Every structure is written in C-alpha cells, then in structure tokens.
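Illustration: 2-succinylbenzoate--CoA ligase.
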Amino acid sequence: MIPNWLLQRAYLTPNRIAIYDETEAISFAELHERTAKRARQLVFLGVKKGDVVAILMKNSAHMVELIHALHYIGAIVLLQNVRLSVDEVKWQLEHSGARFVICDEPFPDERAIEWSEVTQLGERDEKWQTMYNLDDVATIMYTSGTTGKPKGVMQTYGNHWWSAIGSALNLGLREDDCWLAAVPFFHVSGLSILMRSVIYGIGVYVMSSFDAKRINELIFQQNITMMSAVSTMVQQMIQELKAPYPSSFRCMLVGGGPVPLPLLQSCAYWNIPVYQTYGMTETASQVATLSPDARHKQGSAGKPLFHMNVRIEKEGKQLNANEVGEIVVKGPSVMKGYWRNEEGTAAVLKDGWLHTGDIGYMDDEGFLYVLDRRSDLIISGGENVYPAEIESVLLQHEAVKEAGVVGVADETWGQVPCAFVVLHDVTATEEQLKQFCMNKLAKYKVPKRIYIVDHLPRNAANKLMRHKLKKWINE
Ligand code: ATP
Ligand code: MG
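Result:
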C-alpha cells in the first residue's frame, strides 16, 4: 500500500504547479480540490469502487482531473483513443464491461455521458481511496492494434509507480522540471507523464493536439525541460527551428519506434538531447532508454531501466550477446495481464516474463537493439529482412519524408520487400530511390517496388500501420 499520489502531493507540495495549459496554471492543492469535487459528482452519478469507467477525450486539464477523480473512488479507468471508429469504441466498451464512457463530445451509446453534463451533476460524499494497493488495476488501455486485434492491457498502480521510479532513476529529477504532454493520455507515453507528475511533484504542460511551432516557443521560453515524442513529431519541430534549443531543455524522450539516423544527426546539430527509448503499453512505458552521451551506441535503445530485466530468447532458450531473438522482459512495471483474455495473457506472460513479440539483440556491453516486430519480419529467399532497416535507409535520401516497408508474396523468393514513400521533393523517381538503396543495402533487401504516395497510414500515436500498407498493395 502506498498513499494516494495526488492526495499526498496536495499535502506535501500544495503550491507547486501541477498542470499548465494555454489558459492557466493549476497547483497540486487546486488540482486536488477540483478532483475531489469531480469524484463526488461521479459518486452521485453512481460510479463505485471497482467499476470500469471509460474516458474518450483529447488531452485537457479536465481530463487529468477526471483520471485522478476515478482513482479517488477506486474505479478502473479505461482510456480510449479518440480516433477510433464508433464501432471500435463500442467493441472496447462491451469487452471491458465499462459502465460509463465520459466524452468531450456526444457519443452514440447509452453508456455515454458528456463532460459538460458531469460538471452539472450533484455531489455525494464518499470515502476516498487514501491508500493505493499496488496490485490493483488502475488503468486499462487497449493496445493500438498495430499488429492485430486490440488487447486490454491491465496496468496496476504498482506498474505505474515502478515505471515512474525507474524513469527518475535514469533521467534524474529536478524541482523545476516541467514535462510537455503533446502525446495523448490514452497512450501510455502520455498517461505515464501524468503519473510521474503526481509521484515526483513536477508540472505537466498539457497540449490538446500537437503544435510544433508552439512547442518550440515554449521550449525557448525555458518553461519546458522535458518532452515525450515520436520521431515524426521531432522532425516537424526541427523544420520550424531557426536556432539551437536552449540548455534548459534537458530531455527529449523519443519512443514508439526506431529513430532514423538522419533525424538523430539533425537533433545533435540543433542541441536536442534525444533519449531513445523502447517500451510498450504492456510495460507501462519505458523498458530501456539510451542517453545522448552514449553516442557510440547510436541505433540502440539503451540499457534496461534499473527495475527491468531484459533477455533475448529463441524457442524458450536464452541467447548470448549479439544473437538475434525475441525480446523478453520482466519487472514490476510489466502488466498484470490482458483484461478478460486469459488465453492472450498466457500466450505472452510466462513466469512473469513478458514475450514482447519484438526482435532484437543485446550487445556485449548490455545495450539493447530493437530490430523489428516479429510479425513484420520479411523472409526473402530464406534471409531475414527487417522492414525498419530498409525504411531507415530510404529516410536517408534527401527527397524522402516518410517511408514504410512491407513484405509481399513472391513466387521465387517467398516474400520480397516493397516500399511506400512520401516525398519532400516530388521530382525524385522510383528508379533513383531504388538505385540509392542498391548502394546501401544487400540486393535482397532492395524494395522490388517503391510506391510514391501522399501519406502513410498512421494511428493516433503517429505509428505506421504496416498491415494497412499490405492492404494497399492488394487493392
Ligand atoms: P499492438 O500490440 O496492438 O499491435 P502496439 O504494439 O503498436 O499495438 P504499443 O504498446 O503502443 O502498441 O507499442 C509498443 C511497440 O512499439 C513495441 O512492442 C515495439 O514494437 C514498438 N517500439 C517501441 N519502441 C521502439 C523502439 N525504440 N524501436 C523499435 N520499436 C519500438
Ligand atoms: Mg504491442
């Protein structure tokens, strides 16, 4: 058991700022007041300890209140992606057994209640969860479904606690830290910022949608010291830059996928301290993180956080350094399992070891390299081809803005890689790009076709959905 994080913060550091947005700065004491009122209103609505309550919202200060309020009551918060279709949202509500879904906008479902209605409700007093049981489920998040049907990851209070502690032990902690949240709270990259805020007592700058120009302004005003991002966000921020970042900005945590080498190089040029990280919904955020001073390890996701164990396996056996296999991880931030999905849980969690479905290796100094998802691996003429490797080569070409690679059935080779690119410079041709790949890659890795398109299919986390690219080829 551990004290309720926001309650404890409101007691220990009431005057520190918890939340900033474009209109106000809210202290921990004030955030607690607002949260307590919302909790009383939710109790009035009929929310009870143990209920699943969904939130379908864009980032906002009131979304933060709502998450904490549900935890005051002891409800389990289901965070839903606002970009899902109505049917997908309903499927999650059904599957999770949610009693309500609280949303910004009207949503066609009998369980839906709008935020504006919540604020009008009466209030009923209830005893708060003044202590959190580390083994209780705090949040459920369905994985983005990049590889298939979404699974409801159960994240406990303990998972969030350890994730926050592990991150601080690695990145350090400063009283004046302020973490910019431009990634959505319905993904673990965003939610984990809120958990860190109340555990560390630091501010969060809440952004409802990504705005590269505005973020740069905030960083130059020296208000923001840390930020979480995916690489496409960083790329857009760099395009807006005229001067290098000030040294007050100390950490750009970039995850969700590999960071292309040319981007890392421009980050070094613009004084952007990139920490590449590897993690997933199932581990309540970071598993391993690479600090910018490990320059000689470029392309690595770094070493595991203090509380995490990482090993590489093949057919149940642990491999040696530099051997490629599945990344398996163990530690107190690994999920309890998938909600109402024993079979799915048993398939990935064995003796506490989470089988990530990602392929990679550890070098002899213990740095982790993530190659790709097992399911996206292309086997061409018996050779393993990692789409991420080809994408990163394509991105080195000046004309290429975005790249996605998938395997396509081929009579001779079984599968061959094909690429989709979005261009900065539309005069570049498929032939030129192939020639460029030819110079940098083994022949069997050179995409057989390179399709020039105007956008790539990405999910709300800005992640490339390779299974959709496969469909594009078949259409
Ligand atoms: P689903 O499990 O439904 O297919 P998802 O795996 O995309 O969805 P997330 O939990 O958001 O959902 O993403 C975690 C995955 O992102 C990791 O398992 C890994 O494949 C990829 N990833 C994260 N960080 C990195 C990294 N640094 N390098 C390469 N891949 C990464
Ligand atoms: Mg996954």
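Reading the tokens back as a structure: Residues 337 and 346 are 8 Å apart (CA to CA).
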